[in-house]
Amino acid sequence: MEYHFRILRYDPLKDEYPYFDDFFLETEEKKSILEALMEIRNEQDSTLAFRYSCREAICGSCAMVFNGNFDLACRIELQALESSLIVIEPLPNLEIQKDLVVDMEPFWEALSKIKPYLYPDKKIQEEGYRIEEKEMEKIFQYINCIMCGCCYSVCPVISRDEKYLGAAALAKLYRFVKDPRDKRPFSHLLGVNTEGGVWGCDTIFKCNEVCPKEVRPADGIEALRRKLVVEKIKRIFRFRK
């Protein structure tokens, strides 16, 4: 089947503005968007830039927008779009480095601010720490996050407030806060008790809709809000005693 690819192009070294470039490709319907992009690059335009790595929907590198949908180019087949015209754009809310490649640095900076790692108890148990299955179920979906940036890019808050941490970072914080092995101080939670943190979320759940791994980041943000409120109330009554 012949497909018409309309791809957003931009090279900051020579282009004043982004523009759309058209490519026509005869290829199999069952091929992924990533495979089609590779064919275009190999056969029609070697300057076309896009990011990818694992090709197995594990690394999150090939996240982009096609026909208005946020997803991974390696996991979506051409036939799934049900259209011969496929418009491909880079992730919004991030600066374009070239064509479909965006600068992920703001995303990684936001993630680093929440200290995305386990704070274990200083007293290490001799036999290690075993987590009950019911406890693991509470955080499992957040462990599945592959840091593709789809939730960050679709977020309307990010588009108007660059200080907002974004859904991925806040959901990752909830993943560790909910982990029974994590002993981080409450001050770490207070760091997101701001408009740039959990209270900045508009709760329109776009992040839940676009996640290719079916993580629900907005649910984690809501849970962090509840935890902050509960902990503050506990501290008020503790202080009164």
Description:
- The mean pLDDT is 93.
- α6 crosses α9.
- It contains nine helices and seven strands; from the N terminus they run ββαβββββαααααααα.
- The strands form two sheets. Strands 2-1-5-3-4 form a five-stranded mixed sheet, with helices on one face. A two-stranded antiparallel ribbon has the order 6-7.
- It is elongated and about 70 Å long.
- The chain folds into two domains: 2-102, Roll (Ubiquitin-like (UB roll)); 105-240, Orthogonal Bundle (Fumarate Reductase Iron-sulfur Protein, Chain B, domain 2).
- A hairpin with a 2-residue loop joins β3 and β4 (69-72).
- Helix content is 36%, strand content 14%.
- It is α+β, with helices and mostly antiparallel strands.
Describe the protein's topology:
Elements (H helix, E strand, L loop, with lengths): L1 E8 L9 E8 L6 H11 L19 E4 L2 E4 L12 E5 L6 E3 L2 E2 L2 H9 L19 H11 L6 H5 L1 H5 L6 H11 L8 H5 L15 H5 L6 H24 L1
Parallel strand pairs: 1-5
Antiparallel strand pairs: 1-2, 3-4, 3-5, 6-7
Helix pairs in contact: 2-6, 3-6, 6-9
